[in-house]
Amino acid sequence: MSTYHAPLRDMRFVLFDVLGAKALFQRLGFTEATRDIVDAVLEEGARFTESVLAPINAVGDQVGCAFDQATGEVRTPPGFRQAYAQFVEGGWSGLTSPPEFGGQGLPHLAGVPLKEMIDAANLAWGNFPLLSHGATEALLHHGEAWQQEAFLKPLVEGRWTGTMCLTEPHCGSDLGLLKTKAEPQADGSHAITGTKIFITAGEHDFTDNIVHLVLARLPDAPPGVKGISLFVVPKVRVGRDGEVGERNALHCGSLEHKMGIHGSATCVMNFDGAQGWLIGEPNKGLAGMFTMMNTARLAVGLQGLGLADRAWQNALRYARERLQMRSLAGAKTPDKPADPIIVHPDVRRMLLTQKALIEGGRVLGYHAASLVDVAAHGSSEQERAQAEALLGFLTPIVKACLTEWGVECTYDALQCFGGHGYIAEHGMEQLARDARITTLYEGTTGIQALDLVGRKLIAQKGAGLQAMLGLMVDFCDGQSGNAAVAEFIGPLREKVAEWQQLSLRIGQRAMVNAEEIGASAYDYLMYSGYVVLAYWWARSVAAAEASGESAAFKAAKRETARFHFARLLPRTLAHRAAIESGADALMSLEADRFDA
Length: 596
What we know:
With 596 residues, this protein is of the alpha+beta class. The chain contains 19 helices and eleven strands. Among the domains are: 8-142, Acyl-CoA dehydrogenase/oxidase, N-terminal domain (Butyryl-Coa Dehydrogenase, subunit A, domain 1, Orthogonal Bundle); 161-289, Butyryl-CoA Dehydrogenase, subunit A, domain 2, CATH 2.40.110; 451-587. Helix content is 58%, strand content 11%. The two termini are 47 Å apart.
């Protein structure tokens, strides 16, 4: 069985030394988010995730959720419901939500380490409260006052949970094809009829009510995405006065049988004229959907990070203990029958790859979380707009890269165990199976790539890219006399110029042939991820040198940064070559000749 210990030291380093969270929180008006408060959140979060969630992770995988066909009820694995009760009792559900709705009002950045810990400790359990945050955000930004009063307080307090009901059997990411209907009723509500699939936490035994946010079409809706509306459809009816009524006309039809996250209830949801209330304007549901979706995408990126970190912790421990062969340079532990496998270059390659992607990815994910706070609370319209542009640009990178790297890291960690990783005893194969979903739900890697290139780079004229390049240039200029990071400045400046030119060429080609957008998208996204990580590794080295951390900690950061620049950043060369090869290599073969 795998174990988990929250990496509090590195979390604090990222928050306070790299990102300057203490000063940021004060500047944004979060006066109660002091260092002592954040430290207490970290400590208590570690205690809860290590002692309550982590021990039931394997149970959730082995037992899974149970579905009662006769009643449509879902029973969660042993210990899951009790853990949720402790989660709510501890006030964790409303950590970053507004105080006026029962939340604690802490910055989004202060809540991100807890999210990472939950995902690392027990990803399947973490999916139950996950989408409540997205539902909360959608209602905060788009809901009417009565809807906020009726639904937000129980969601924030954790008495109810939320879902996102988007996908249908015949359409996945192409929501323009959805068929769920919304018929207006005399009381101002709508009767929602249709089937949604892949609905995380669509039914469970944690709470008495579940708030479904459902995309549907009004009778006179135009075709495609311009005819989508968003509705709040609770499991138990809720009136405009907030009064809870009878059971709504919706039920879980079945549970999906999945490769991993067995403890998470992934439901087929049937709506049979269920009472729902319109959120926002008719046919303008995409705005609310993207509010939910972008929140979820950042959250799923953290899932990849958390799983990778847990897998790496166990692989590192095993590599230090497992004796196998002698070092090629001679025995390192001559008093033992063989050397620990951590001395072998290929094992070190895998461990260092994990360390570089995890610790660099942690800064990337936490930085995106800080931009959520700045975009909402920045002191000027210009600051808020720039943060919003950069956040929009980084969101698909965070979601796609952290999850793709999560898959890579969990598989590398399993590989470190050799054949022992493939059997269930050590728990590594569960982590690898659980990680695989993260590149798929809330938008596949390909969808993220199209969003990055098609929308953020071309449609928005690269505003977010320019903000990111500006950060990199400012850092390089500001560190020009710092010997501790001198070796990284030249390569970073080269990547700034290369990234800018590569982006321009994609835009120019797309004006001639629109297929160039899709042909370049995946490689451009991954290229961007490795470059952004190089920036954060250089900044991490600078922050470590300026901190009060030990010499060993500083050396570890410096050597891992060197590994990233030497071994991982060169991956951009392959991605750049693929981009420059153009669309022809992908599109020339006729579809009916693939099996020729």
